[in-house]
Structure formats: structure tokens, C-alpha cells
Design goal:
DNA-binding response regulator (chains A, B), elongated, 201 residues, alpha/beta, homodimer, DNA-binding, 6-stranded parallel β-sheet
Chain lengths: 201, 201
DNA sequence: GATCGACGGTGACATTTGTCAGATCCGCCG
DNA sequence: CGGCGGATCTGACAAATGTCACCGTCGATC
């Protein structure tokens, strides 16, 4: 029996995935969580064989949760389950110690299959996505550029961002400018979109 | 036996929801679709009692699909199932003839419950969301303002938008300016965010 | 028939944004 | 030690953005 923890913020989707896994005779969902920190807590408690973590969750993403679970429950294999197959996500997931990366676009049957494969010690990564992630290279944004771009994403003005990050307006403009350059964008909105689609934010 | 059509673009979520509904003895999933147009086609084919439609789908959203299904299969009750409980979505869903509006945040048990209730002729709408939708009022953006704002959402410049919509740059700026005003935003990025969060885009 | 709102436009203006050339620190690496 | 890159800043400049006032045409509505 493979003991699985499932972390996913949308209750209906979580319930549906539980029922999907429930169809498998050799898989048992022993814990559920709706946020990253909750997933870590539950993992510590139930010590599952496999943790299925969504990336897009409120209050700390699935990737940080993955790293913490690897540390606290070393025997637990971490599978990342995400809506978006972004290269940067895959890279960060691997660095956080995940052994599988599934996108929700793939057929439902993949889920149970992936759980079994990671339990046997295999890795499960979509080869196309892996190729894209490798060819795209790592995140070119410096930490500070990333911060500033993220702060600009919600429509804040340069002044707002400068205040929030305790920087001068000129510095903020400089970081934005270089982020725009590195993302091959023409303005901050495009830069934000490109960075997002690459999983750099 | 309640015959259900399920339209949802993410295959894994779709499969999971099918398995969830499969647990119910009185519910049978008789059709699946991954896009709006496909949902309409399948509905015409299988004539389900209830159609469960996701809003966020590629190639024509679930709301237009809802309207078309109502027209072509009048006996079919339409349930909208969405990630985001946006007031504007609810309003448009109701105008398109949907009888229920579910957010994926709600517990998995709500799904089967809603299917049964709409089959009995009831409507299923979260009271809180309904209150928000009513108090927020209708979409204040004129069709053209909406077009221009939508075109600005991906980081296009005024020139790009003007070209794409066959308008002068001045006109584009005017529409953007009034959209920014109506959304109480300070720039186009904020305007896009606000309009999105209200379901006006 | 007058009024109103949506549509489309012009021109001028102030503000914001994006770019560039520097400059200073600091830590790291050969 | 010297050099390099990251972080931070300044000042100046050009381009894009946002605002405003005002002009017309429609079609609907009172």
C-alpha cells in the first residue's frame, strides 16, 4: 500500500483527486492539506511515502514545502503537481528535491502511474518540458531585479515600489530597465508576463 | 439516473471530477469536453440532463458555451464551475441561462449536491458571492473600453493597440484613461487587474 | 425635437516610464 | 592584489502614458 499526502488549495479539486486515487487498490490517501505550511505539518505527522504538492497555493508555495518535507521526512518522495508547465518551476522543483513534475493537463491516469513510479525510485518528468527548461537556461534575473519586477506586477508605480523596497526611484527604474532588457520585453508589463510564463517570478 | 456532461480543459482535473461523480450511484457522466465549442457539440450529441462547464477554457469560454447549450438543448440545466468567484462571471453566467454557479474552492461534496438540486429545478448560488455581485453593480466599462483594456493587458503599447483595433492613438489613450477612471486605478496595469478581479474582462 | 451615451477623433499638456552614463561600495575569485 | 559582478545611487534625457477640453456622428430614449 502506497501512503500518499495530497496538498492542493482548491477543495473541490483536492476532493476529486482523492477520489481518483481512491480508485487505485494499492494507493491510500493518508493526509490532505490546503497550503504549503499545512502540507509540511501533515507530512511530519503522517510520514507518507509520497507527497503530491500543488505549486500555486496561498501562503508559501509548494516548492518551499517540497524542500522542507525532504528535510523533515527524508524517505518521502515529493511529486510536484501544477497547472502551468513553466520551465522555471521545473528547475526550482528539481532543486528543491522533487522527483516528479506533473502538469494537470496530462491525462488523469498519469497521476497514479507517477505515484507508483516514484515509489519504485524512478523520476517522472515530461521530456518535452525538460528539454524546454534546459534550453531556456536558468533564471537570468538577479534577486533584486526579480523583487522589483514582482513588486511592479500589481500595477504599483515606481514610487510605490521604491517605498516598499526601501530603494530610490532611480534604482527601481534601473532594475526595471534591466529586467525589461533581460526578458526581451518592451515595457514592464511585457516583462512581467514573460518572466511569469518562464516561472521566474 | 442523472446524465451529466463535464467540460473542463485540464485533463487531470476533468478525470478526477469524473471519478468523483462516479462515486454517486444516481449520477452518470455521459460526455466530456475540453473546450467550449467541444462542450456544445457533445451536448448536442448526448443531450445530458446537466452540463457542468468550466469558465476558463481555451477557444471560447464556458459562458458562451452555456448560452449555446441552453439554446440547442433547452432541457439541459447548465452549471458553471469556476476557479474564480468573480462577480462579473456570476452575472454573465446567469444572463447566459446558467442555473448554478460553483467555485472550485467549495467542498467536493457540493458538486454532486448541486447536480441533484439543479435536476430538481433549484438554483445553486453561493449567497455571499451573490451579495457581492449585486452590490458591485454591473460592468461599468463600455464595450470599446473593455476591448482596449483587454488589448492592453498583455503589455502592448498604445501604438500596437491602435493598430490592432483600427483606432487612432489618441482614441486609445482616451479609452484607457476612462477605463482607468472607472476602475479607480492609477494606471493601465492596475486597471487590468481590477477589471479582471471583477470579471469584467 | 432635445438629450444622452457610446463611438471616434484632435491637440496640448504634465507626469511617468525607460534608457544611459556614470559613480560608490562590497564580496568573491584567481 | 586586481578585477569582476551585484547592489545602490544620481542626474539627464527621450519616449510613452495619462489627462483634459473639445469636436463631431450616431442611435436610443424621453
Amino acid at each position: 500500500m502506497i501512503r500518499v499526502l495530497l496538498a492542493e488549495d482548491q477543495a473541490m479539486v483536492r476532493g476529486a483527486l482523492v477520489s481518483l486515487l481512491g480508485l487505485e487498490p494499492d494507493i491510500e490517501v493518508v493526509g490532505e492539506a490546503a497550503s504549503g505550511p499545512e502540507a509540511v505539518a501533515v507530512a511530519r505527522e503522517v510520514r507518507p511515502d509520497v507527497a503530491l504538492l500543488d505549486i500555486e497555493m496561498p501562503g508559501g508555495d509548494g516548492i518551499t514545502a517540497a524542500a522542507m518535507i525532504r528535510e523533515e521526512v527524508p524517505d518521502c518522495r515529493v511529486v510536484i503537481l501544477t497547472t502551468f508547465g513553466r520551465p522555471g518551476y521545473l528547475r526550482r522543483a528539481m532543486e528543491a528535491g522533487a522527483v516528479a513534475f506533473l502538469v494537470k493537463d496530462s491525462p488523469a491516469s498519469e497521476l497514479a502511474a507517477a505515484v507508483r513510479r516514484v515509489r519504485r525510485g524512478e523520476r517522472v518528468i515530461d521530456p518535452d518540458l525538460a528539454a524546454v527548461a534546459l534550453s531556456a537556461g536558468p533564471n537570468p534575473l538577479s534577486p533584486r531585479e526579480r523583487d522589483v519586477l514582482a513588486a511592479a506586477a500589481d500595477g504599483s508605480t515606481v514610487g510605490d515600489i521604491a517605498g516598499r523596497l526601501h530603494l530610490s526611484e532611480g534604482t527601481v527604474r534601473n532594475y526595471l530597465s534591466s529586467a525589461i532588457h533581460k526578458t526581451h520585453a518592451r515595457n514592464r508589463i511585457e516583462a512581467v508576463r514573460r518572466a511569469r510564463s518562464q516561472g521566474w517570478l
